[in-house]
Write a structure and sequence with these properties.
218 residues, Translation Initiation Factor IF3, five-stranded mixed sheet
Length: 218
């Protein structure tokens, strides 16, 4: 509710209607089948606009959802190697890291040592330097190789802009699927009660055996 005495009114087309009493502005909004919404309360006098508040809220929510859909957080991916990695596996790891960087993600490339391999950390350092050289067109090494425990790694920041992923057809179908309605539960519960209240049909009595007939055991 607008509590000030007068407001500067803007109509639904954005045209200035001037300063008028709040009561008169509300009456004008009612005559046009619209709402009077205060859009600049700190102005002097405050600014109010004539609009369809329901439609306004719908459009605002729609824009917020669209903006959220286009947002994409940058994640931290990891690529692991061993000091004795083969050439083919090394190239595969490089291609995988480039894919992550092209998506705009940061990548951690780690060399994991086992046993006596820790006595030759230079092997891991040379491997990481070679890896960084292969991906230099897609990322920037944030710090030199660092040995932590049994692992040596580097962190690479992408030089690509994060990509926006469009929703898949299945996700779109789910978004338009009919939501679960509490009415369904009420209907099911009513049917259960109805079934419990309906008695089962009586079982007809079995005919008595003829007294003159011989009985047989089962």
């Amino acid at each position: 509710m607008i509590r000030v005495f007068e407001v500067r009114v803007v109509d639904e087309d954005g045209s200035q209607l001037g300063v008028m009493r709040t009561a008169d502005a509300m009456r004008l909004a009612q005559e046009r089948g619209l709402d009077l919404v205060e859009v600049a309360p700190l102005a002097s006098p405050p600014v109010a606009r004539l609009l369809d508040f329901g439609q306004y809220k719908y459009e605002l929510t729609k824009r917020e959802k669209e903006a959220k859909r286009k947002q994409r957080s940058i994640t931290f991916k990891e690529v692991r190697m061993k000091p004795k990695i083969g050439i083919g596996d090394f190239d595969t790891k490089v291609r995988r890291a480039i894919e992550f960087l092209e998506e705009g993600d940061r990548v951690k490339i780690a060399v994991q040592f086992r046993g006596r391999e820790l006595t030759h950390p230079q092997i891991g350092r040379d491997l990481l330097d070679k890896f960084a050289e292969q991906i230099k067109e897609h990322g920037v090494v944030e710090r030199p190789p660092l040995l932590e425990g049994k692992s040596m790694h580097i962190s690479v920041a992408s030089t690509h802009k994060p990509k926006v992923h469009e929703p898949t057809p299945s996700a779109t179908a789910k978004a338009h699927a009919r939501p679960v309605d509490e009415t369904d539960d009420v209907i099911e519960a009513a049917l259960d009660v109805e079934n419990e209240a309906t008695p089962a049909p009586p079982v007809p009595p079995r005919p008595e055996p003829d007294s003159g007939a011989a009985s047989t055991g089962v």
